[in-house]
Design brief:
Blueprint lengths: L7 H15 L4 E2 H8 L3 H14 L2 E5 L13 E5 L1 H10 L28
Antiparallel strand pairs: 1-3, 2-3
Helix pairs in contact: 1-4
InterPro entries: Metal_resp_DNA-bind_regulator, Tscrpt_reg_PadR_N, WH-like_DNA-bd_sf, WH_DNA-bd_sf
Protein name: PadR family transcriptional regulator
Organism: Micromonospora thermarum
Length: 117
Amino acid sequence: MARPRITNALLDVLGLLLEAWDQQTEVHGWQIMRSVRRSGPTVYAVLDQLEDAGWITGSWERRPADSPAGPRRRYYRLTPSGAEAARREVPVPARVPPPRPRPAPGFGRTAHPRPAG
């Protein structure tokens, strides 16, 4: 299991997979493409690399026999070791600075001219 080549596309996909890991859910390829705003070939190349490295697993959607026709979805999730590796690779989102205090009333307004005198 070779370590995948770290690219911006891979980091985008890993970030989404980490969110799904934290929420204990799975995501399918179309969700990933839409969320990270990357093309299908790019996303599926990344997913193949991650699966080859053992960082993710994929499983096909199970449907009852009487379900509407259409392609089945393939769902992906991080493996426990993949989640650890992803946390090492994906940068922690920048912290949002605390809100600035509001200026006192009248601050920044044009001062009224003082009477001459």
